[in-house]
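Q: My collaborator sent me two sequences in one message, no labels, and asked for predicted structures for both. Can we handle them in order? The first one she listed is below.
A: Yes, handling them in the order given. First sequence, followed by its structure tokens:
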Amino acid sequence: MAQTAASLTAGQTSARGENRKGLGAIWLEFLGSMNLAISLLVVVSIASVIGTVLPQNQAYTDYLIQFGPFWFEVFRALNLYDVYSAWWFMAIMGFLVLSTSVCVSRHTPAVWREITRYRTHVREQSLRALSQHRAWQSADDPARVGEVAEAAFAGHGFRVRQETRGQATIIAGMKGRATRLGYLFTHLAVVIIAIGALADGNINLKIKEMLGEFVIETRDLPVSQIPQQSWLPAESGSFRANVTIPEGSFTNVAFLQVRDGYLVQSLPFRIDVEDFHIDHYPNGMPKSYSSDLVIRDPALDEPIRETISVNHPLTYRGHTIYQASFTDGGTKLNLTAHPLTGRGQAQSIATHVFEDTRLNVAGASRTLEVDDFQFFNVNRDPRAVERVGAADEFTNVGPSFNYTLRDDAGQAQAFHSYMAPVEIDGHWYYLHGTRSAPDQPFEYLHIPADDSASMATFMRFYQALHDRSRVDAASTRASERMLRQMGIANPDLGVRVAATANEMVTTLLDDGFGEVNAQLEARVAGSARSAMLLDFSRAVLQGTLFEIYREIKAEQTGVGLDRIQLNSDQQRFFEDAMNAVSAVADYGAPVLLELDHFNHRQATGLQITRAPGKNVVYAGCALLVVGVFLLFYVSQRRVWAMLSPRSDGGTDLLVAGTNQRRPELFEAEFTTLTDALDKHLRQHNEGSK
């Protein structure tokens, strides 16, 4: 009974051991299966396509605008904005390394046996069963026939091995065994490439983030004010960071975009930008741009000076510096602020791009934010439309700058102003654009340029419209002239007409011609002579404005008001000026900024990458190329020669061969081999006789 119990216990233990072994074998088989490897590669391929189509590591606000709130959150939860560093992508790559490594370890012994064993243990029936075989009967003894067969095999590139089994002698030949190495090389290449990808995926950074060793900064702060928790040490791992450096400046840091914020990546050297160069096509598009850099490092005896451009980076200490973009580097601007409220005098302002300046002009308080400066503004030249492809088909209209005016409540309005006048339909205008939203186009205020190509005449005219005494005098003269031309002598009527003209000028300055016409139409509505009254009122307004303009021209030329005569160009200027006065009401700003002088300064945008796994990936790719070449262009061929002695002292020779990959090509090769062997056997037999 005790023995029976002991036997049962031992059997149960053995069964549990077999189960455990079976489970381990199942896991190994699963990890090393082809289906799993293909599935992982498909997922990696899909992720790579997503990472290629979807721009990576952009600002979250850009993704929010592009995809909307719902899909933005979905894609963020899946880490699609940084696919190659996502935890699931890293897990797949790690699992791929494990799976492929298991597959390689499982099949390496079999591959090794395949490329080292000559398979001398073959039988005659097996050789005759091969499609490629041929037999001879020779009068020579097996030793001599074996020498001939071995020489024939070796002459066709086969490595041979001879073995005697009983009375028969087996000569085995093998060629192209490197194709079996192709299998190992391709699988090892996948492992090596995946390891390199994991190294460049910066697992160390992910681990530190999970441990809370650094904090992603989301505020726009100067570098000196960014807390140390948002700094990464130099050579801390792989990264792809960006930095903008103005001409004549330097930096030893770069900024790593991380989701909705950034980290400061320290560099083990300093980058100085001596100069930035840019060439343009005739249409104003950038043709090429480059940066003159100086690398300063205490480890260097002399600084490294090199010019980089697009597709021609600089590599130093494992860091590759690419020419990525360019922008303004803080161009200094000298502006004139013209008040549009009729109060105060023009003021001079000194500022530069990306600087905020507090303005207090004519009682209006605003914050001036200079956003950008464009040195070139190239438009198609309307005078060259008939010269298709001509070099002067485009014209540069000169510099311009973008700025924002922000009030005390935080409401902002964007503006775009040109420095020089622009020709439109044969006349010259200063263009001042405005928009209330970033997705809207600029709507431009056209201020006519005077004979001196300046805005001085218009600004004097516009300021005079706010001078009540000048408007009263001008409206009185205009009303008296019109009544006199109509043959009406009524002083009281002249006073009422002048008062109406004053009201219309005030409405024009506040709301434009549209509101003036609306008020006039409402005033004469129901009158039998409404059309005539409308025309008369408009004529009085135009006459008042014309009188003020004549005063300005008389002051500029020093000619008396009663003797001033205006030519056709000055008449056209007056018409453009009236349109501009009406448009100022919709301009939406208390001041008009004019660019007087500038000191242009550009900045280069650099992308700095460090990829310690890059060389590992390159090595894996090279190994993959070798492996694929061996797999597709090298095939393993085996041949056997079986020599059996006969009773009369002769030899029966049986030669067979196989090549499972390219049987049609091997058939021709086997025929050449056996024909050569047949020839040698005949020659040997004839020599023996």
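Q: And the one she listed second?
A: Here it is, processed independently of the first:
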Amino acid sequence: MQLKRIIFSTSFILCLTAMLLIVSLLGEWAPLQLPELKLYDQLLRLKPTSPPNRVVVVAIDDASIQELGMWPWPRTTLATGLRRLTEYGAEAVALTTVYPAPSANPALEELSHLRTTLQSETSARQKKAHRPVLRELRKIEKRLDEDQALINAVRAGHNIVLPFRLAFTPSGESDPLSGLLRLNSLAQPDRTQQTPETLQAQIPALLDRIIPGPPAPENVTETFRALAGKAAAMGAINLSVDADDIVRQIRLLWPYQERYLPSLALQLALKSLGRPFRQTVLLPEDCNPYGLCVGDTAIPTDDYYRMRINYHPPPIHLNKVPFADLVSGKVDPAIFKNQVAVIGVTATDLTPAYQTPFASQVTPPEIIAAAVDTILRSDHLIRPRWAPLAEGAVLLYFLLFLLIVIPRVKLNIGALILTVFLATCWGAAILAFMQAGYWFRLFPPLILCLLGFGMIAVRQIARRLKAENTELNRSLGLSFQTQGMLDMALEKFMQCPAEDKTVRRLLYHLGLDFERKRMSDKALTVYERILKAGGYRDAKRRARKLKAANHALTMAPSLDAPVATLKLTDTETRPTFGRYEILKELG
């Protein structure tokens, strides 16, 4: 009974709730994460953001496809666009279309077979006659060789980044990393020999074992070797979505076979900044509070190297140029001077569309461009590593306040105090987000306060109603008792909590009245109720005497014993008859 009372007490429930909320701050629990993310989106709309000025999206959109033909285009068309960007002085260029194999061109195969046949002639006269034909065939092959045109365009550009795609569905044994990907990756640090020294470092290490992280890729689809070997860098084009299928962050490093593969956005930003990727510092402890450091460039990430994208709220948008206008020379070359260009398909029905905090149909090239813009502007959104500790301290503060202060004040005053404290907490967190980009979770203290105040209010109201009901029953019981209606008085007194000493005193006097009326059974009932609640005066002795008297009455009387007409077994409580008190029997 005592254990049940403790478990259902307000203090125990609030302490348990606070512990669960503190644990939830260290991970990503969907029921609490979803409202936080919605609030995050609203705050992002209000946050002042500097306009983009270094990233341009070269869109293969519906208008370009209508002008240049159905997708996929000949690779010579893409090569033309890359050469134009190089001529216009683009600082770095990324292509988001993966070409895993050389193009299959039957015409080239036929020309190659014909050239081989002509070269196989043994006669010197025939060889001399075939030389002009062979030269012309080589020219035709060069014009028709789409792959070579694209390779030459990539080689001519000094900072062109090509993509690869990671696959998360296991398809047998994972493919080994190629030499190019090894050059474009980093060795994972050996964390097995590192023992966290502080509590703040031990908690994430413990959670890594309990809470599974995001899935790791199983296979990789690379750009074919002849083309990838001419690129300045390579990066993954995969995107990450949150629990509500909205893209708010991008993973900059992907684990694969004890290596870290970079994302296309990271590689493109580093090429623009002139920072070598292989100088990236991976250990968060070495560049706290950031997750990645490359020289003097710091990029904040979480423990899985995911960076939050600082999107531009409407009506601000990234610069977007149709690919058809680029290859036809309809755009001003100054648009691309010292700019970062992202070439990708944005046409409807040709590429998947994602949701962002500001739009419902956003293509991968636009998301990658927004991530690059975030890195270049250094306008980062940060969830500090010490944020769970600060949020946990706030929760403990509100818990102590709910346990100590709120139960001792009136409900309206308590509600006002909690509202002021919550408004202060939320205001400080919102200000930190607006000014410094620091994101703190705001719903745990709100949940704790609403639950705690609700429980305290319900119990105080129930206690007040119970007290009012008790007072009413006491008044009615006293009224019935003074009128001699003892049964009705007993009914009202039994509805009052006998744990109250005043109620036990009323019950005791009612028991005496029952004794005077010689209603021993009801008097015994009253005394037993008093004894269960803790006792009062000589209720125990009277109950014992009444039990003995009842036992004696149940015994069969002797035939020779004189029979009295009135039993006076208790000289302390004399029976009454109307307003008269019976003292003794005369005869």
